[in-house]
Design brief:
This protein is of the alpha/beta class. It has a single domain, classed as 5'-nuclease (Rossmann fold, 3-Layer(aba) Sandwich). It has a five-stranded parallel β-sheet with strand order 3-2-1-4-5. The model has no long low-confidence stretch (mean pLDDT about 95). The protein is about 45% helix and about 10% strand. The protein starts with a strand and ends in a 12-residue tail after the last strand. Helix 1 packs across helix 2 and helix 1 packs across helix 4. Helix 7 links the parallel strand 4 and strand 5.
């Protein structure tokens, strides 16, 4: 079964209070629809980076976010993942202030996860950076996962 790495924006949108902004509300609803609809049949995984990020903020919401992913396998942040994340930052592909985003990409790549599910289009699923990320990941001997949002996965994955 293909795996999907859950980046911190997914539990964030899932448990957030309904937004008054239509675009954000649509992302929240797509996240809930995807999650409650079985996550396209994908096996979900997280990392310590995800867990650390979702544990921050308002205590009640942090507990909800952590509870949402509590039963998911946690991928190890290996030395290879740290090296790859550092390379993404050093190359200027991911800015230093967003080094955690590089860790998400690196952990998912190093562990051969097929999908990285995120709403972060600034530093992770950015179509203008995608090829540079892919090249850097490949140069370290790994394959970059398909980076996508829950909305893109609402049409379930079908195994032919």
């Amino acid at each position: 079964m293909p795996r999907a790495y859950i980046e911190s924006s997914i539990p964030g949108y899932y448990v957030a209070r309904p937004s008054r902004q239509i675009a954000l509300l649509a992302k929240q609803q797509a996240t809930r629809d995807w999650w409650e609809g079985g996550c396209s049949g994908l096996d979900l995984v997280v990392s310590l980076e995800t867990l650390d990020e979702i544990a921050r903020g308002e205590e009640a919401k942090a507990l909800e976010r952590v509870g949402l992913v509590a039963t998911l396998p946690v991928l190890e942040t290996t030395d290879a993942a740290i090296d790859l994340a550092d390379a993404l930052v050093r190359a200027g592909i991911v800015p230093g202030k967003a080094a955690s985003d590089a860790v998400h990409i690196a952990v998912a790549s190093v562990h051969g996860v097929e999908f990285l599910v995120t709403w972060n289009f600034k530093h992770i699923a950015n179509p203008f950076l995608r090829e540079r990320i892919r090249e850097r990941v490949l140069s370290h001997g790994f394959r970059m996962p398909t980076m996508c949002s829950p909305g893109e996965l609402l049409n379930e994955y079908e195994d032919d």
